[in-house]
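ARCHIVE CARD
CATEGORY: sequence design from structure
SOURCE FIELD: tokenized fold
FIELD CONTENT:
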């Protein structure tokens, strides 16, 4: 059954012309009692009405609609678009055109919202970047001014101030290096050197490397029972080492005394492996979880700076995993602990 709301211009012209021609022919036939002539009136009225209505729709209404479409796409029409405007668009009903315009409006609205979010993120990023650099710069400036003011004559005091200044210089160097690494990851300047390796062996190596830090808080590191069987993955080993190293360092920083860090490895399907690291530390508030992979985002700014770091570690981890075309996720609860994991490509048999 035809729906008048979905009529194309030709269908609309046809039914409108018939609606005008049939009554004219009937009235003519009744008044003149000449039904042969009435048929001719029907044909002529229909033909004239059809072409007049089609002309009005095509040259006045749909011409304006075409201009709207061209304005929407804001570009000179190519051959494909010209074909669309000439043959496809005229077959559309007004409702279909309205739906197209509403869809375009929704897309533009979403784009505008994204731009607003990006602008807010950019402002916050610049503020955080400025703060991260100003903190060590002002500290260095303070130590140098104090030394120049006479403290340099005190060997013990000057040495302590120089050591503190050196720590802040190291902090600035680390910050610059992390920013440079993120830039290279985003631009694709760091190619991946994928090789097959056993993920459990790499995790054990990182556990051993960071054993001094974990032992300082008496934190036990282990691979979850049932996950010890060797699983071979195909990835850039050194970049994944960097990810694991960063995750374990974070778990150590925010872990509790006499706590634990447990690694879990699972085959999710024939192509992917899931690697997770769980701790029983302070945890992360639910409101912070969507943003912890952002640059410089800190759940507790004062406490985070006290334990060190540039605030870029998780952002770098996420970039590395995304460069591998894989995903990273986090689960956490305050005073219970945090689990951060990522997927990797399983080595093809």
């Amino acid at each position: 059954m035809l729906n008048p709301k979905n009529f194309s211009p030709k269908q609309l012209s046809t039914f409108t012309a018939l609606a005008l021609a049939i009554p004219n022919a009937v009235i003519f036939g009744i008044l003149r009692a000449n039904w042969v002539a009435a048929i001719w009136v029907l044909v002529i009225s229909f033909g004239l009405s059809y072409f007049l209505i089609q002309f009005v729709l095509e040259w006045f209404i749909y011409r304006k609609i075409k201009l709207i479409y061209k304005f929407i796409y804001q570009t000179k029409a190519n051959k494909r678009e010209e074909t669309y405007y000439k043959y496809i668009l005229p077959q559309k009903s007004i409702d279909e055109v309205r739906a197209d315009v509403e869809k375009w409006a929704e897309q533009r609205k979403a784009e505008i919202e994204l731009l607003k979010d990006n602008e807010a993120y950019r402002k916050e990023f610049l503020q955080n970047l400025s703060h991260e650099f100003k903190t060590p710069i002002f500290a260095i400036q303070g130590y140098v001014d104090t030394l120049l003011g006479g403290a340099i004559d005190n060997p013990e005091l000057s040495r302590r101030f120089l050591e503190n200044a050196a720590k802040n210089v190291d902090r600035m160097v680390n910050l610059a290096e992390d920013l440079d690494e993120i830039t290279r990851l985003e631009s694709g300047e760091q190619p991946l050197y994928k090789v097959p390796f056993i993920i459990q062996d790499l995790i054990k190596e990182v556990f051993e490397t960071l054993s001094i830090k974990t032992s300082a808080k008496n934190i036990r590191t282990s691979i979850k029972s049932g996950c010890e069987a060797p699983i071979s993955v195909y990835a850039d080993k050194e970049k994944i080492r960097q990810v694991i190293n960063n995750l374990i360092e974070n778990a150590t920083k925010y872990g509790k005394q006499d706590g634990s860090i447990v690694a879990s490895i699972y085959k999710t399907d024939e192509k992917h492996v899931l690697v997770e690291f769980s701790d029983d530390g302070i945890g992360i508030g639910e409101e912070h979880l969507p943003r912890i992979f952002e640059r410089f985002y800190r759940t507790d700014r004062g406490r985070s700076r006290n334990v060190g770091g540039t605030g870029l570690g998780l952002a770098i981890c996420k970039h590395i995993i995304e460069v591998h075309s894989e995903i990273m996720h986090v689960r956490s609860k305050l005073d219970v602990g945090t689990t951060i994991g990522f997927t990797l490509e399983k080595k093809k048999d």
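CARD ANNOTATION: Residues 301-305 have pLDDT under 50 and may be disordered. The radius of gyration is 35 Å.
SHELF: design records, drawer C
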